[in-house]
Amino acid sequence: MTERPPRLGRTRLVAVDGPSGAGKSTFAKTLAAQLNATLIPTDHFATWDDPVAWWPRLRAVLDKIAENEEATYRMTDWSEGFPKPGEDRTIRPTEILVVEGVSSARKSIADKLTAAIWVELEDADERLERAVARDGEKSREHLTRWQAFERGWFAVDGTKARADYVVTSS
Ligand SMILES: Nc1ncnc2c1ncn2[C@@H]1O[C@H](COP(=O)(O)OP(=O)(O)OP(=O)(O)O)[C@@H](O)[C@H]1O
Ligand SMILES: Nc1ccn([C@H]2C[C@H](O)[C@@H](COP(=O)(O)O)O2)c(=O)n1
């Protein structure tokens, strides 16, 4: 990854995208630790009612990092299994920034990405069961709705076709 050039100012921005339950968060945590990178999960912005339209708030953070400035945002808190406003988080300029979550590799950020990684697991039922096992049975309805939404999003955005790497979960 460090052989590829930075495209967000001095920062190498790496996006880990793919459908819910495929293993993005798990993969991205390991990747960020190995690269000594800062990790921003899009869960810090998304809520059930706002799956992707929060983007301007994350984009504002990325724009500050591109200017080599620190940036602060209010995290969504999922600790009780539902989204509520959480604490502020400040991100400092960094050599490598990993952004992980559905829509993190969206078309509008493609020219700033050092790498787009697509994490997938073909079996949609298995993905749903993994996500329900993670979040609890009460989340099944939300997750089912979310997975239907993201299918449409990915089809329109064409995310996978732009990926530099495809990681297949097993
Ligand atoms: N390779 C794997 N094999 C089995 N289970 C896995 C694997 N990778 C992740 N999981 C588990 O599957 C669940 C979903 O993984 P994870 O949260 O990383 O996916 P995600 O793509 O980030 O999902 P979401 O978009 O819903 O946040 C978690 O409970 C995780 O521990
Ligand atoms: N513990 C969590 C965290 C997030 N979610 C929601 C947030 C999104 O609506 C959706 C997918 O998140 P992404 O992979 O895009 O970061 O899941 C949740 O239900 N439980």
Descriptive notes:
- The protein contains 4 helices and 7 strands, in the order E-H-E-H-E-E-E-E-H-H-E.
- The chain is an alpha/beta fold.
- It has one domain: P-loop containing nucleotide triphosphate hydrolases (Rossmann fold, 3-Layer(aba) Sandwich).
- The strands form 2 sheets. It has a 5-stranded parallel sheet, with helices on one face. It has a two-stranded antiparallel sheet with strand order 3-4.
- Strand 3 (71-77) and strand 4 (84-91) form a beta hairpin.
- The longest helix has 18 residues, at 140-157.
- The model has no long low-confidence stretch (mean pLDDT 96).
- It binds adenosine-5'-triphosphate and the ligand Nc1ccn([C@H]2C[C@H](O)[C@@H](COP(=O)(O)O)O2)c(=O)n1.
- The site of adenosine-5'-triphosphate has 14 residues, from helix 1 and helix 3.
